[in-house]
Amino acid sequence: MFRRRDRIQYKTPEQIRTMRAAGLVVAEVHQAMRESAGPGVSTAELDRIAEEVIRSSGAVPSFKGYDIGFGPYPASICSSVNEQVVHAIPARDAVLREGDLLSVDVGAIVDGWHGDAAITIEIGEVAPELTALREACEASMWAGIRAAATAKRLGGISHAVEHSVERSGEYGIVTGFGGHGIGTEMHQDPHILNYGRPGEGPKLRPGMALAIEPMITLGSPDTAELEDGWTIVTDDGSVAAHTEHTIALCEDGVWVLTAPDGGVEQLGELAASAARAE
Ligand code: MF3
Ligand code: CO
Predict the structure, then answer these.
(1) What percent of the chain has pLDDT over 90?
(2) Measured between alpha carbons, how far is 276 from 134 in angstroms, rounded to an integer?
(3) Which atom from ligand 1 is nearest to the alpha carbon of 213?
C-alpha cells in the first residue's frame, strides 16, 4: 500500500469507496452547518450538532482527541471566524454575529478511513469583499482539484491554486499550512503547498487520496498561533477564508469524495466514472 520511495499510501478502488462513505458524512455535516450557522449561534452549538450528525451516521469524529504533541483536540470541528485562519476551537462564548465569515473544518472516519473537508460560510449579510474572498478561495480549490486530474506532478496542483488566487485579486496565500495526503490517517504524505511550480513534487498516480485546502487572506499571508496551542490567526488581523475537499485520483479521473455530487458538476469530463455512476 505504501511505495517505499515516496511514503505515499496508494488506495485500492474498494478503499476509495470506503473513503467516499466517510466523505459523504463530512458533506452531511457541512449541510447541517449551513443550515444551523447564523447570528446568535455559538460555535460550541455547531460542534454539538456536527458530532451528533457524525455519530448518528455510525462514523467517528477524527478531530476529537487528535494530538500533535500538545494534548488532545477537544472538539469535532474547527470553527474559525474572521481573522482566525484554521484550527480554532469551538466555544460557548464564540457567538456568531451578522457580517462574520466562518470556516468550518470537519473530519470523519468510517471503517478506519478518513474524510476531511472545510467550507467558508457567510453569517447573515457580509461585506462584499468577504464574499469575494470566499469565492476566490473556493475557485482556487477547484482549480487545484482540476489540476489533480490533468497535471503530471503534485506541483501542478499547487501552481494551479496559486495562479487562481492571483487571478482573483490581491490576496495573501497562507504559507504555513497546506493540504495533505489522507487515508488511514488524517494527515499523510505528501504535504501540499498552495503555491509552487508544475514540475515539482511526486508524480500524481491513481490511488492517491489528497486533501486540497487553500487558505487565503485579505492582507498578509503570515500567521500566528494563539496560546491555546491550536488557533491560527492572521498576523495583521485581516480576515481569512479556508475551503477544503478530500479527493481521490482514480484511473479515469478525479472523485471529490467530500462533495455530495462527487465533483461531477464542477469537473465535468474530468470526474471519475465512479463519481458519475453514483
Ligand atoms: N482539517 C484540518 C487540517 O487538515 C485538521 C484539523 S486538526 C484538529 O489541518 F486537530 F484540529 F483536529
Ligand atoms: Co485537512
Answers:
(1) 96
(2) 27
(3) 4
